[in-house]
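Dear colleagues,

As part of the handover before I leave the project, I'm documenting each prediction I ran so the next person doesn't have to rerun anything. This entry is a single chain, and its sequence is reproduced below.
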Amino acid sequence: MTTSFMHTGDVHLDATTHGRTNPATGLNTLWESNFTVLSFLVEQAIAKQVDFFVDAGDLTDGGRPSQEALLLVFEAYKPLGEAGIPLVIIDGNHHVTGVPTDHRTVIHTLATMLRAVGVQVFIASKPELLRLPDGSQVAALPWLSKNRVLAMLGKDDLSPADGDRAVTDYALQTLEDLAEQADSSQPLIMTGHVTVDRLRIDAVADGHRRGSEQDMAHLFAEPVLPVARLDQMPFQYGALGHIHTPQHFGDRYYYAGSPNRLTFTDMPDHKAGNLVTLDGMTPTVELVTTPARTMTRIDLADDAAQSHIDQLTEGALVQVHLAEGQGSVPADVKKAIRAAGATLEDTKTRTKPRIDTERVQLPKQVDPMTALRTWGSTQDLTDTAIDTLVSAAEKLEQ
């Protein structure tokens, strides 16, 4: 049985970074861009006649989106109803922000709205096996709050490291249990809003302050699932969310990444949705490139800076790295950016390189004249000059 679906996640539709109010619509320009990108993936899913659509969490930037933001998500997903394409959505960590533990999250409201217009919506705020109309099965692992899981397990007195291990063990056992519940004759995938142990974050390697790239548990203050264990499970594809940089592990586990460039840490990413075809245990994944925002870095210390300025396109968001000694973006550079229809969004200063000087080691107890002679020897002074300096100091001391 061949099955196909679209995989995306981390839309963060109502994020506002590097956005501004569009006077014609009253909407933030990033909201509009995110809506365009999500609508595009829905259109492509319909054109490709996929069997279902998977959203791996963090549709909104917080747990209490405005009604306008919720309506935009609704409008983007509404065409799936007429096309007869089921929609799977799981909760991400941003969905629970500001939401009391015993309250429903935004995906429950969205599901009610979409079902009213004929969209078949399958949601998960807790781990469960979702069975779709075509027989496909989705083992859903929404974002796991460490505190909530430990409280549920009665293990809220563990050390941080032991707590991480307990939640990781719970997640892995849960996925194994869901796999056992599945019909082995039907397609089976998993979707999770999780962190895995082999991921990379290019922005960290580039010097952005996001924590340690090597220590993911420290970086996210949450449990990390080992890919080696996931590889042993019978899922034909892992549709992962939570990490905005697209990447995959082995043949079957993929972060689609955020479909739009939300911040300059996303600048080098190829933004796309994953069009997945299943026929056996090795999925075929086609990247569906989205109309994401264009972001450009111009380094004024680079000889190619003018060439990069000349290549700016309408609507591009620009990050300028100043040359050493510059305190602000030169007026002619600002003018050129505006003339291209681009926007200067971010400026980075260049720190002067630190010059390490050789340190002179002195005994803990040393007389002032010896200390003065030692200092003089590090200043390229002649012996005569040092003798004169010491002599003068001795006279002053007397």
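Confidence is low (pLDDT under 50) at residues 207-219. The longest helix spans residues 160-181.

All the best with the project,
I.
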